[in-house]
Amino acid sequence: MKPKLPTAPKTLKILQALKVRRSRGFLYSPLTVAYALNTFGVYALSQEIGRRKELGWKIESSFIKTHGGAHVKQYYLA
Asked: What is the pLDDT of residues 22-74, one digit of tens each?
């Protein structure tokens, strides 16, 4: 089943960022809360990702450790 295309501008920007980062192999610069906050003004990225998953988008995540020692989640298209 093909995912539904979103219409909200913020949704389109987040999905475009996920697509671009996947196509360029951004394993060292994943889509994280810090990136989403600075780029899109989205603080609750997990909620935004959940909405995209409900539309049928295959989005996966994993935890990474930052240089400062914090554990954060990164998101990418499956």
From this structure: 555 554 456 888 888 888 888 888 888 888 888 888 888 888 888 889 888 88
3-state secondary structure the chain: CCCCCCCCHHHHHHHHHHHHHHHCCCCCCCECHHHHHHHHCCCCHHHHHHHHHHCCCCEEEEEEECCCCCEEEEEEEC
The number of beta carbons lying within 10 Å of the beta carbon of residue 14 is: 25
